[in-house]
């Protein structure tokens, strides 16, 4: 044995090299896309499958730029989908037709709420449809979540597998000024992270707020409540709202409130608090002001851990805010991939974005976008099972 492998150190080094080479081969990312039905008005939809070779798979459909599923291993290596959703296009188009819970979708042009559906741009008041009376929610009656996006490119590289989707929103779309061209690149990395890189430009002054609205359950899609999951949010403040979820304009400290997740805290511990903000939202549905500068490198915004499965997910972003939503409007009216009805508290959404109603609050970070400027933000969902 010593003649073949040399010294014990050489033997161990050889074993390590073989393991490393096997790991590299195993971690080879792949991307594929195929038809996934047509919308009720006949537009073809495709589904893109990204694999990182580490057991994690993400699927994105061109309708709404929706993250249809994310499959990743638990602590025992058992792979499960951790995103709420449907196994056919009709599930999403019917949801949209009802008004929408925005399962997994890209939200635009303006994520979150605009008071009364009105907003100023360069001193002129514009209007979009009121979809959550008395306010507009998530971009009008036909937001980005209800459009079919175009696959611009797919591929693999040393970082993982990716797809870039494109949507051109014409001037006046849903009441918003300017022709807006948006690209979103989804990359499933060999670091087990799914990143969404948003880039947008306009030919006239406008306002823009983009996010993703995936519903996460790290114990598995359809497995029930996320109340046992442990959440930490890197934020010392939040934006309080009135009874219609419109910010008051203040930034209040989370300390001493049910919104204080500065230390890891079980989600269910204070979910039924009688705090006024919690009563307004019927659970958690608030914008946390993420610590650290926005618009630079993505920084840690939050982390959620499921003690049942051993899965954890970090949320990193260079957006200024993080809207955290405990799926308070899921009422059993939808059944997911495995046929389980989705109910209140069965998932948690992490919507990295600008603050709600920012155009109507000059003290908030601006959401204005002008010709020659580029909207450029990244949000990362990084998975682990350690």
Tags for this model:
single chain, 386 residues, mainly beta, 9-stranded antiparallel sheet, 6-stranded antiparallel sheet, 4 helices, globular, disordered N terminus
Number of strands: 30
- Percent helix: under 10%
Q: What structural category do the secondary elements indicate?
A: mainly beta
Strand line-up in the sheet with most strands? 11-12-13-14-30-24-23-18-21
Number of helices: 4
What portion of residues belong to β-strands? 35-45%
How far do the termini sit from each other? 36 Å
Poorly predicted sequence stretches spanning 5 or more consecutive residues: 1-25
Query: What is the 3D form?
Result: globular
Summarize model confidence as the mean pLDDT. 93
Global Rg: 22 Å
From the structure provided, what is the oligomeric state, counting identical versus distinct chains?
A: single chain
Biggest β-sheet, characterized? 9 strands, antiparallel
Give the topology, please.
Blueprint: H1 2-5, H2 8-26, E1 30-38, E2 44-51, E3 57-61, E4 66-73, E5 79-81, H3 89-97, E6 106-107, E7 113-114, E8 118-121, E9 124-127, E10 136-137, E11 150-157, E12 160-169, E13 180-189, E14 193-202, E15 206-207, E16 211-212, E17 215-216, E18 230-233, E19 235-238, E20 252-253, E21 265-266, H4 276-281, E22 285-290, E23 299-305, E24 312-317, E25 321-325, E26 331-335, E27 341-343, E28 348-353, E29 368-369, E30 375-384
Antiparallel strand pairs: 1-2, 2-3, 3-4, 4-5, 6-16, 7-10, 8-9, 11-12, 12-13, 13-14, 14-30, 15-29, 17-28, 18-21, 18-23, 19-20, 19-22, 22-25, 23-24, 24-30, 25-28, 26-27
Pathway: Carbohydrate metabolism; hexose metabolism
EC number: 5.1.3.3
Enzyme class: isomerase
